[in-house]
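Below is a filled-in request sheet from our internal design queue. Each sheet records the structural input a requester submitted and the sequence that came back. We keep these sheets so that new team members can see what a complete request looks like end to end.

REQUESTER: design group, bay 2
PRIORITY: normal
MODE: inverse folding
CHAIN LENGTH: 166
BACKBONE (tokenized):
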């Protein structure tokens, strides 16, 4: 599929809005290593093009109360001007803990986008006291994941679940 074939358009409020339809695996996971044989498949196969077409339909935008001035929706837009913040969101966890708010951080154990190990390392970097080490949690008598309790935060894994754990 060419770049031009990937472009979609919709008329909203009398104005044409263009958007990129879906993402290839290479675009969605650029950090993922590819071999010569699978590289072409990753660069050619477009995922979720149906979703971008659906969300950009005039009737769907109206149902979601998206104003006409808002741009067309794209999956993982590259048009956002991100700013580097060295501490990222680390500061809010200290504020929440200091306010006595108990937190839960959960991670699907088959998440390829935000792997459990990365979340584990990030939580360990908070250097909070461990209240209870790893133990299984059950659902209908089966192991559904594991939990580690820190002072102010529970880290929960969900067995067999990917990035869309909720």
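RETURNED SEQUENCE:
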């Amino acid at each position: 599929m060419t770049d031009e074939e990937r472009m979609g358009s919709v008329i909203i409020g009398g104005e044409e809005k263009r958007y990129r339809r879906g993402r290839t695996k290479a675009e969605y996971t650029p950090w993922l290593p590819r071999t010569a044989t699978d590289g072409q498949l990753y660069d050619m196969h477009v995922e979720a093009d149906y979703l971008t077409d659906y969300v950009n339909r005039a009737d769907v935008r109206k149902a979601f109360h998206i104003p006409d001035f808002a741009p067309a929706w794209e999956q993982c837009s590259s048009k956002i001007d991100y700013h580097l913040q060295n501490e990222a969101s680390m500061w809010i966890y200290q504020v929440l803990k200091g306010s006595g708010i108990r937190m839960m951080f959960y991670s699907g154990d088959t998440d390829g986008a935000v792997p459990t190990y990365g979340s584990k390392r990030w939580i360990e970097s908070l250097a909070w006291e461990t209240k209870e080490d790893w133990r299984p949690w059950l659902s209908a008598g089966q192991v559904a994941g594991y939990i580690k309790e820190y002072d102010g935060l529970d880290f929960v894994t969900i067995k067999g679940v990917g990035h869309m754990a909720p």
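SHEET NOTES:
- The longest helix spans residues 36-44.
- The chain has a mean pLDDT of 83.
FILED BY: M.R.
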